[in-house]
Structures are given as C-alpha cells and as structure tokens.
Design brief:
about 230 residues; mainly alpha; 12 helices
C-alpha cells in the first residue's frame, strides 16, 4: 500500500466533507420537523391523519433510499406538469433532489422513533400535569415532548449516523461529496483500495464525533443516569 498516495487522497477527500455535512445537517433538520408532524398525526387518533402517517412510514421505510432518490431526480422530470411548474428550477438540480430524498427518508424513520417515544411517556406524569391545571398544549410542550425526546434519543442517534452514511448515495446523481470525489479519484488512479480506505476513515471520524455529541446530550438530559455517566 502506497501511504504517500493514501495521504494525498485523504487530503483531496477532505474537500468533500463540507458538502457531506451540509447534506446531512439540512436533511436531519428538515426531517426532524417533518417527523414531529408525522408522530403527532400517528398519535392524534384522527383516522385520516393516522393512516396518512402509517402509509408514509410504510412507503419510505419499505423502499430503498436509492430508489427514492432516483424517482425524485429522474422520475419527476418525466411529468410535463412538473417541468412547467415553478418548482422545476429546484427539482432539476441534483443538490435539491438529494436533499429532498434524504429529508423524506429520514422523516419516516425519525417519525416512527418519536412516535414510540411519545407512547412510552408514563401516563402518570401526564395525569399529574393535568391535575396541576396545565392545558393540553402545555402538557405536550413541557412534559410529553421532552420525555419522548429523551426516550427516543438512542434510536434517533442511530438514525442520524445512518443518514450521514446515506449521503454517500448523493454521488450517484453527480454531487461531489466525499464518495463522489472518491469515485473521481478511482477513475483517475485505478487504486480503489487506498481511496476507499481514506473515504471510510473520514466517515468513521465524522460519525465518531457525532456519536460522542449524542452521548453528551443524552447525559445532559439524564445526568443522574448511571448508564449516561458511564457512556461519557
């Protein structure tokens, strides 16, 4: 193995890190907002909203992200109504198609995780809050949602890590993030081993930092938990 080439490759791949982080952060932020809405729909008890959330979870969790990405990037342009709409200037750009696919996909997983956290909130705490005179919105804002996030954080942390890795699929539609640059370097050098070792190392470092941040936040939410203390 040529370590000089490996070092040079690593430095070139670092140029794709900002795009990788950008894709992941925007998708996770947008997906979290959508996930909260879906979790509320799922927990609303209203038939139409509940079934919409169920169908959304079923479709986006049951199909590969790569297929979803292809359908958005290649499929939407097949419709004349889409090409004639005001959204075509956005939907024809690979960057926004990747953001859209990643956001919709992570919203399905995160929404299901948050729903599990909501229904796991102890009913006694909700009843105690209502007994203190809190309104339904106040109970949700001060009791239900904070506890639900605390309970859902380990599962949602895994989804965040998965989403960072999933950004590599954006290279399929010509976005030059870490994997996209890696593909270009392989086509130029025909040395996939060194290139993929460097790319894998970068993803490993990013996810290591992310998992540590998640553990620190988990400790912040549950400072008296022995498990949280040990993990930090």
């Amino acid at each position: 193995m040529d370590f000089v080439f490996l070092r040079g490759t690593f430095m070139e791949l670092l140029a794709g890190v900002p795009m990788t982080l950008q894709l992941a952060i925007i998708a996770l932020c947008g997906g979290f907002v959508f996930a909260v809405i879906l979790a509320l729909f799922r927990n609303s008890g209203v038939g139409v909203l509940d079934w919409f959330a169920r169908l959304y979870f079923f479709v986006f969790r049951g199909t590969p992200l790569l297929v979803q990405l292809f359908l958005i990037y290649y499929g939407l342009g097949q419709f004349d109504a889409v090409r004639a709409s005001i959204f075509w200037s956005i939907l024809r750009e690979p960057y926004w198609c990747a953001i859209g696919a990643l956001t919709l996909n992570t919203a399905a997983y995160a929404g299901n995780i948050l729903y599990g956290g909501i229904i796991a909130v102890p009913s006694g705490q909700i009843e105690a809050a209502r007994a203190c005179g809190m309104s339904g919105i106040t109970v949700f804002r001060r009791i239900t949602m904070p506890i639900a996030i605390r309970l859902a954080l380990p599962g949602y942390g895994n989804e965040m890590v998965s989403m960072v890795k999933a950004t590599s699929l954006a290279s399929i539609i010509t976005i030059m993030e870490v994997t996209g640059i890696a593909g270009r370097l392989i086509s130029e050098s025909y040395r996939p081993v060194e290139v993929f070792i460097a790319a894998g190392t970068i993803y490993l470092v990013i996810n290591f930092v992310l998992t540590r941040l998640i553990q620190l936040y988990e400790f912040y939410l549950t400072p008296h938990s022995p498990r949280a203390a040990v993990s930090v």
